[in-house]
Structure to design on (302 residues):
């Protein structure tokens, strides 16, 4: 609970307590005493609640490669730079979050262009926002020392990563040209710099709901493939092309969690070549092709 100044919370409680004691000293009936005590308990509770802020969930925004402040949240439509309140945050939450490896963190953070899958849970102390600007600086802003940004403290209580999620796969040298993005179903111990017990606890699994099986498929005929994919309530974890004869593209299948597979047939190709001996069609271009037929299947696990 955030502690109010004596002139606020403690003063109000002290005043009520003083008046209550005065009333009790004059009371002549048990009913009046009980009623007064009840009023006291309610007032104390309400005063205490004024210093308490409920934890909320926030998308975690992080700007890669920037100097100065690089992490922020959005609250009520406004952006706020934050720093974690390491002293008052949950120890396990802050340690595990700091230990998350770059190849999991970077593909799943939110940024101005897209929303990621990392959610932080806690309280943002707006009273601390901008207090850092009141501290005199010995170094003046200039090259290598940007103008400081206002920031506020965020008390982290927990966090999670929506699954399935993307991760970056690279060789030991982490050559940008060799980095590939792949899908992963859940966190494991290899995704952290320190030993984490039960890493799956930091996942929230997004299930493809059964109503995805009842999509009005007819309305997507003649529409781009991406319009269908955006309607399904999860990210696909794998995909494949089907071609007949070999090299002549007919469509693609998208595999989702909990056994859902969506096969999309396309008509005349407008963005991809009809024949491809290597069978390595560009997925983003395929999403622009127009749908001619859709098949949705649900495979139950044995």
């Amino acid at each position: 609970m955030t502690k109010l100044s004596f002139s606020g919370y403690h003063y109000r409680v002290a005043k009520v307590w003083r008046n209550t004691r005065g009333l009790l000293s004059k009371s002549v009936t048990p009913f009046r005493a009980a009623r007064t005590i009840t009023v006291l308990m309610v007032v104390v509770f309400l005063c205490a609640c004024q210093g308490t802020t409920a934890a909320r969930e926030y998308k975690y925004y992080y700007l890669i490669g920037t100097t100065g402040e690089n992490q922020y949240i959005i609250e009520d439509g406004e952006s706020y730079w934050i720093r974690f309140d390491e002293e008052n945050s949950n120890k396990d939450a802050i340690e595990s979050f700091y230990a998350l490896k770059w190849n999991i963190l970077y593909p799943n953070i939110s940024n101005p262009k897209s929303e990621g899958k990392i959610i932080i849970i806690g309280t943002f102390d707006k009273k601390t926002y901008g207090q850092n600007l009141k501290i005199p600086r010995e170094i003046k802003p200039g090259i290598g020392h940007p103008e400081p940004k206002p920031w506020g403290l965020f008390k982290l209580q927990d966090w999670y990563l929506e699954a399935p999620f993307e991760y970056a796969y690279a060789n030991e040298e982490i050559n940008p040209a060799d980095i590939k993005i792949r899908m992963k179903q859940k966190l494991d111990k290899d995704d952290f710099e320190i030993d984490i017990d039960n890493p799956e606890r930091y996942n929230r699994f997004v299930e493809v709901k059964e109503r995805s099986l009842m999509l009005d498929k007819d309305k997507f005929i003649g529409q781009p493939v991406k319009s269908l994919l955006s309607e399904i309530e999860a990210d696909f974890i794998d995909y494949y092309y089907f071609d007949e004869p070999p090299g002549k593209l007919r469509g693609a299948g998208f595999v989702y969690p909990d056994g859902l597979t969506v096969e999309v047939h396309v008509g005349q190709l407008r963005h991809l070549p009809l024949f491809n001996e290597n069978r390595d069609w560009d997925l983003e271009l395929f999403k622009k092709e127009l749908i001619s037929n859709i098949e949705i299947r649900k495979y139950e696990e044995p």
Notes: Residues 210-298 form one domain.
